[in-house]
Amino acid sequence: SAVISQKPSRDICQRGTSLTIQCQVDSQVTMMFWYRQQPGQSLTLIATANQGSEATYESGFVIDKFPISRPNLTFSTLTVSNLSPEDSSIYLCSVISLGGTEAFFGQGTRLTVV
Amino acid sequence: DAKTTQPNSMESNEEEPVHLPCNHSTISGTDYIHWYRQLPSQGPEYVIHGLTSNVNNRMASLAIAEDRKSSTLILHRATLRDAAVYYCILRPFNFGNEKLTFGTGTRLTIIP
Fold first, then answer.
1. Shortest CA distance to B22 belongs to which of B74, B83, B82?
2. Which of residues 84-103 of B touch A (CB under 8 A)?
């Protein structure tokens, strides 16, 4: 199993600013994923964060808006840049353990942009 | 990615069995069927997965049709804590393709 600590749990930010979300895992994992969940909606994958290489972004998401770092096998950050009210969502970190099939999720970061 | 179709919502009485259906008519031979659920204000959690045979674990059972074009998640005795959105997801068994693509899911309401 894997335990994920995601910080902050929530934040209220001014438009035009940025928010960096941290994801810490209690074990080494190969792949880390960042999702967005807009109000009342399902989860949408933003990108896959690979250690030692550039993140792989899904269609509709770009590095300039959602820069990701993955400095080691237990930690990643997602930055949501140049915030607008449309970025108000829950952002979730997810991992799959080495050799595992089950995905684990953080509790999420609830972002409100005002 | 192959798509899944689930009812938007279902209701069930507490302490009764619940059968949550999922259609996946375009499933490929290497797709595993995964189920996750998302309790209110929490991230999704793994429930169960299978390939061809029916599967049981402490949380639920997964019944897979012989042609694999549909499956059913079975909660044997629903409790109020089972109220959640349940997602049926197809995931290819390819190393390097572990991402999960979420559909709209089924919102399960448990009636006391």
1. B74
2. 85, 87, 98-103
